[in-house]
Each structure stands twice: as structure tokens, then as C-alpha cells.
Amino acid sequence: MSAPREPRGSLGGRATRRLLETASRIVTRARMSAPAAADLAVLETQHVAYVQLHRRFTERASQGGTGLLSALEALDAMWETIRLLRGVAPSVLVTLSSAEEVVQNRRARFYAESTRLLEDAIRVVLAADMGQLALPPDRLAVLVRVALEGLVVELAQARNAEEVAKVDQAYLDLRVLFERFVGAPQPAVPTALVLGPIPLPW
User: Fold this and answer.
1) What pTM value is reported for the model?
2) Were both Cys, which of 42, 102, 120, 130 would link to 95 (CB 3.0–4.6 Å)?
3) Within its chain, how far is the Cα of 72 from the centroid?
């Protein structure tokens, strides 16, 4: 039986909110005088949020909170964290495009670490459903991470409530696809695609 959903405002959620609010203030102040330091702070904040979510859901899994419902709750929790990141989303966008070597190295480590945390959470929460996954956990983790980072980029460009609502809808659509993807039997998937170049208009 899956563990009950944690109510909004739970200890884990409040801790994450405080972390992101503090990071937002620090990044805003640091961006002008030390942009590389601000970029590193953004990446570290994202990493800590992933660690907290990983701990929260693997602990629940050890108490019986496993299966697709718990996986969806984990996805919802990650989305809630990303929505809290909206205040620093433009800084995230700047960080992701930084050419500073120290930022690029930390960004690469963040991608590797967050993907590893996602993969481990998938293996733990969906341990009984491994045979039904449409993709193995390591590749599914990459897709989830890429999708979530993409939603952060979309939030960074949302200028009003209507545009934010469209990003929310994109998450809900992703959630539906994830639910179907996890519950589908494994198809025969090509290991690589060979595509020719697309001609550009310039």
C-alpha cells in the first residue's frame, strides 16, 4: 500500500521553500558583482533540492511507499519545487548558458548527480515495476531531468499568469505521459538514430 501524500506545507516542503527563497535573495545580490559565484549558487541550490527530494521519497519507499502512485507524487513534488524556483528561473537560464569554465564544470556535475539521484529514486520507488518500464531507469532518469530543466527554462520566459498557466499545463501533460510510459511494456527501441542535417535558412 502506498504511503499517503504529504500535505502541502509539510516540513520537507517548508525547508525547500526556505532554501529557494534564501537562494533567490543571494543570487539577486551576487549577480551584478560576481556572476560566476551566482551561477554556482543557482546550481548548488538545484542540487540540494534534488538531494532533499531523493531523501524524502526513498525514506517513504523504505516504509512501503512504492509503486506508480508514489512515483507520480515524487514527480509532483519535483514540479512544486520547480514552481518555487520561478523567482530565480531567469538566473537558472543565465547559468545554463554560462561560458565560464568553472560554471560549465559544475553544471556537468549537477547534471550527472541529479540524474544519478533520479535513477536511484526510480529504482527504489518502482522496484516492483521494473519489468514494465518502457525504458531502463538510467535512460528514464535522463528524460525526466531534461524535461524538468526544460520546464524551468519555460518558467523563466513566462511573463504573466496566462503564460505560467501554459507551463503548468505542460507539466500536467508530461505527468500523463510519464504515467503511461511507466506502465507500458518495453517496446523494441532503436539504440541510436542516424539523422541527416537540417538545412537552415541562413
Assistant:
1) 0.72
2) 42
3) 13
